[in-house]
Amino acid sequence: MNKTVMIVEDDERIRYLLKIYLNNDGYNVIEAVDGNEALKKFNKNIDLIILDIMMPNINGYDVCKVIRENSNVLIVMLTAKSEEDDKLLGYELGADDYVTKPFSPKVLTAKINVLMKRLEASTPSIKTEGIMKFADIEINQLSHDVYVKSEKVYFSPREFDLLLYLTINKGLVLSRDTIVDNVWGCDFDGDTRTVDSHIKRIRQKLKESTALITTIKRSGYKFEVVE
Q: Which are the contacts of 194, defined by CB distance < 8 A and separation ≥ 6?
């Protein structure tokens, strides 16, 4: 079944170009001209959202925040802003990637293809049980569901991949560079501070769990369980 991408962009020309490139790569495309329409049209069958930030009424940051409250759909933020802090805010809200205008539709489509392949590759075989338990945390690798104290908590695809990587390497100190290479991929061209913003969000979602992500000064992070 073809994957579905929703383009949320108030510039009709950009929507038109992206739709052509995405259709040519076999994607189904849903269009939204602003944040209001995006929230109305969003549904569980959408696999990825290209989300412009600077839009009237509801900006992209707010749309991302609302969607992240109950969905782990892939989100690529699209904006004319290039400041590092703006990108970090997007990542903190749950974005999976960030593209700055002006951009090449061909390059953006290639980036989307990579994100889709990584998402598929991170899903284990249906033949395995795929459930990991650490203290009061349960991670289902098949459904990508995470439960904290028996309560389901939504994680973005990147947050889920990061949490899974940390738990698989329980007790080991992992540097930011190592985490980036294994979770984002060696071709990631962003800042390693992105790891910090994702760790912050994961910690917030783990709440009062006895499982902790510990910061190791000048080294990185370690996942451990308090007995």
A: 87, 88, 91, 180, 184
Work out the number of other CB atoms within 10 angstroms of the CB of residue 12: 10
* Mean predicted confidence (pLDDT) in 31-37: 92
List, as one string, the DSSP characters of 140-193: ETTTTEEEETTEEE---HHHHHHHHHHHHTTT--B-HHHHIIIII-TT--S-TH
The answer to whether the bond into 102 is cis (omega within 30° of 0) is yes
State residue 120's pLDDT score: 66
3-state secondary structure (DSSP) of residue 211: strand
Please check the confidence at residue 1 and state whether its pLDDT lies above 90: no
Q: Check residues 173 and 84 and name the one with the higher pLDDT.
A: 173
Query: In this structure, what token pair is assigned to residue 200?
Result: 């912050």
Give the strands of the sheet with 74-79, arranged side by side.
28-32, 4-8, 48-52, 74-79, 97-100
Which phi and psi angles does 193 have, rounded to 5°?
A: -65, -20
φ/ψ region of 151 (left if φ > 0, alpha if ψ in -120 to 50, else beta) reads beta
Residue with token string 């749950």: 94
Q: How much is the pLDDT for 154? A: 87
